[in-house]
Design goal:
The chain is about 60% helix and about 10% strand. By secondary structure, the chain is mainly alpha-helical. Among the domains are: about 5-95, no CATH class; about 170-245, GMP Synthetase, Chain A, domain 3 (2-Layer Sandwich). It has a 3-stranded mixed β-sheet. A hairpin with a 2-residue loop joins β1 (about 190-200) and β2.
Length: about 250
């Protein structure tokens, strides 16, 4: 692929990433420009065109079109980065469990998976795959790999939760699935997280972009869902939703 077309693709990836991280959607003109740029790749590599259109659909919030385009990209090409970007699109749309399934199947296929580790850890954390994150840490330590701070933070946060609020490892994905379902039902989409220590208590916040009323409703729904889980003690871990940008929060579930 020519340098110009590589720049076109990289520009689409960069722009869609910015929209995803800012929890905003492109306007109609921007969307059309991005789609026109994606179609420039059609005669060179149609799988990349479909992948790019899938990324664009993800920031537009169009789940069906996103899945359609990424599925097409996988039929047209075998590059593992197609799966990687599919995983990123699912994360943008708030489907953490599916995003993890896609990226977990992809890591071993990448020629150099090192660059994707931060993305993998971000997705794994939000999917509650804490055991996988600890295995990744062990692998890097055994290989004597220098771990940058932004990667180490995921390991530290998982270890903090597991030590302070030990649960069976299979419970963390269940909790994550409850958070995911509530986020999707309230049309929140992309989520992030933060750990916070308040008065010697550990708070695990799922960060969302929503107003106070919506966040309060989501926390009530989460509290009710968690109360229905059997054989689980959350006395040492406060779990709740919190506003990502406006520092909006209501009482977390415990």
């Amino acid at each position: 692929m020519s340098t110009d077309l590589t720049s076109v693709l990289n520009n689409i990836i960069d722009i869609t990433e910015k929209f995803a991280l800012s929890h905003t959607k492109p306007d109609d003109l921007t969307s059309q420009r991005l789609k026109n740029d994606a179609k420039k790749l059609l005669n060179i590599n149609p799988s990349l065109t479909a992948m790019a259109l899938g990324l664009i659909a993800s920031v537009e919030g169009d789940v069906d079109e996103c899945i359609k385009q990424h599925t097409l990209s996988l039929k047209l090409g075998t590059d593992p980065t197609l799966n990687l970007n599919y995983a990123i699109s699912m994360k943008t749309l708030g489907y953490n469990a599916e995003s993890y399934r896609l990226i977990d199947n992809t890591m071993g296929l990448l020629p150099d998976p090192g660059f994707a580790i931060p993305i993998y850890l971000m997705i794994a954390f939000n999917a509650g795959k804490f055991e996988s994150i600890q295995s990744c840490e062990d692998m890097l330590i055994n290989k004597n790999v220098s771990i940058p701070p932004h990667v180490q933070q995921y390991f530290d946060d998982v270890n903090t939760i597991v030590l302070r609020a030990p649960l069976p490892y299979d419970m963390y994905p269940i909790i994550a699935s409850l958070q995911e379902a509530i986020s999707l039902n309230n049309k929140v989409g992309l989520t992030d997280y933060v750990l916070e220590e308040i008065n010697d208590e550990l708070y695990y916040w799922c960060l969302v972009k929503a107003d106070v009323k919506t966040i309060a409703l989501m926390n009530c729904q989460l509290e009710e869902a968690l109360s229905e889980l059997e054989h689980i003690n959350l006395d040492d871990l406060n779990i709740g939703f919190k506003g990502k940008e406006l520092n909006i929060m209501s009482n977390p579930a415990q």
